[in-house]
Amino acid sequence: MSSSAARPILEVRKLTKRFGTVEVLKGIDMVVAEREMVFLIGPSGSGKSTLLRCCNRLEEPTSGHVIVDGVDLMAPGTDINAMRRRIGMVFQQFNLYPHLTALGNVSLALRKVLKQSRAQADATARAALEQVGLAARAGAYPADLSGGQQQRVAIARALALEPTVMLFDEPTSALDPELVGSVLSAMRDMRAAGMTMVVVSHELRFAREAADRVVFLDHGQIVEEGPPSQVLGTPTSERARAFIADLLH
Amino acid sequence: MGGWERFVDTFFKPALIERYWPAILDGMWVTIQIAAAVVVTGLALGLLLAVIRAYRIRPLTWAIILCVDVLRALPPLVLILLAYFGLPNIGILLSAFTVLWLVLSAVLAAFTEEIVWAGITSIRKGQWDAARSTGFGFTGALIFVVLPQAIRLAIPPLTNRTIAITKNTALGSVIGVAEILNRATTAQSVEGNATPLAMAAIAYCLLFVPVVIAGRWIETRFGWRRA
Nearest by CB to B135, which of A93, A154, A161? Predict the structure, then answer.
């Protein structure tokens, strides 16, 4: 898919983030087009998770702009809560609500943010759970689900709000190896359905197979980006070469 | 008189039981009223203070911490005496019942605030992140995601504290609230016999053992396993 022709969904402009005196992001420019799946990779501390969390302002950028579907998240008049529900987010630690069932987790925002009736919200939530293959576990509490199932419920929770773009923050890093496959396959299905996705992950094999583009970050800067075959196959920078070789072997 | 007879005569004299059980029963009714009022207002006010503190508005936080710490540090009896004998001198006339209710509510609110606040701070940041990422504002995330979990964590210490403070309704006897102990001590001084006090002890058991059992039930009913 050519990213230049398609409509931009997520634009990051001159984004910087400083924690005290530490500059974590040093002017990031990135555009993600509609239906594109972009992988953010890089060593720990490179700023990739911070960049992702700046994309819905869970982390407050120090300067720069994040534009989602034409709306500048940093503009004073922007309703950030309204924008956030159009930006799905999936976390490394799942962050399911332990006091609610799978269905309750998925339907909570539908009922309390979108003010849908219980019947309507439950129907939407069941459909979202169906999409990730967990319709049968709708009544289960997070504690009774495996890590892979919990993460798929978390994906359904984001999907149910029909987001314009989905952010994944190391979605499989907390999972036992045998549970990773089910989460990746749910992501594959979303991609097939045309979802725009930004993924922070170390699953380079999955990136090679599924990503449209790979962005390599180091020390808060984009060092290289391009199709997975290029960035993962023939990286030009020494840092990227070393990092990728380390992960693949 | 043998030992057993003396024991019965001291603590369970039938004539006195017959004479005073209506008074003790009246006292139970008064105790139930104060206890219920204290539980409702104390828990509600404490929860409200914890919620206000969650917004981390500096002057409000400091005011809450100051009040809560003072209320937790002082013996409730001191506060009751201060309020009952002090307030009339500055023109505030409150009935003994009202003083007891207000003081115990304030003390319960102070402990409730601390316990619920501890619950709120122990909820992991990821829960806030998840709620905010689905479009909840701060208040929505607090009410629908964080508080339900914080309150569940707070229930065991809260039931203990609630029972401990409602038992302090007995302090009302000092300022003449006609609750159980007040009736019993009055009767005891008239009769020079401990039977009314034993009756009071039994009355407290009848009131509070069910509360303790209810507390245990609430703890199991609303407990849940962490993921």
Answer: A161
> How far off is chain B from A242, nearest CA to CA, in Å?
32
If asked whether residues A174 and A231 sit together in one domain, one would say yes
List the domain range (segments joined by +) for residue A134.
97-162
| A202 plus A241 within the same structural domain | yes
CA–CA gap between residue B149 and residue B222 (Å, rounded): 10
Q: Does a structural domain hold residue A91?
A: no
Among residues A131, A146, A162, which one ends one of the domains? A162
Asked if residue A33 lies in contact with residue A23, where contact means CB atoms within 8 angstroms, the answer is: no
Topology of the domain comprising B3-222 = MetI-like fold (1.10.3720)
Q: Residue A194 domain-assigned?
A: yes
Is A66 buried (19+), middle (13-18) or exposed (0-12) by CB count in 10 A?
Answer: buried
Complete edge-to-edge strand list for the sheet that includes strand A71-72: A22-33, A8-19, A63-68, A71-72
Closest by CA position to B71, among listed B95, B98, B49, B93: B49
Joined together, the tokens standing for residue B150 give: 């914080």
Which residue type does A114 have?
A: L
Residues 45-74 of A with CB under 8 A from B: 56, 58
Count of domains observed in chain A: 2
**Distance between CA B194 and CA B157 in Å, rounded?**
34
A175 and A157 assigned to the same domain: no
**What ipTM was assigned to the predicted interfaces of this complex?**
0.94
| pLDDT tens readout for residues B109-163 | 999 999 999 999 999 999 999 999 999 999 999 999 999 999 999 988 998 899 9
Report domain extents, chain B.
Answer: 3-222
Q: Judge contact between A41 and A216, C-beta under 8 A.
A: yes
- Provide the shortest C-alpha distance from residue B131 to chain A (in Å): 8
Nearest to A205 by CA among A39, A93, A92, A44: A39
Q: What predicted TM-score, i.e. pTM, was given to this entire model? A: 0.90
List pLDDT tens digits, range A214-233.
999 999 999 999 999 999 99
Say whether both A9 and A121 belong to one domain: no
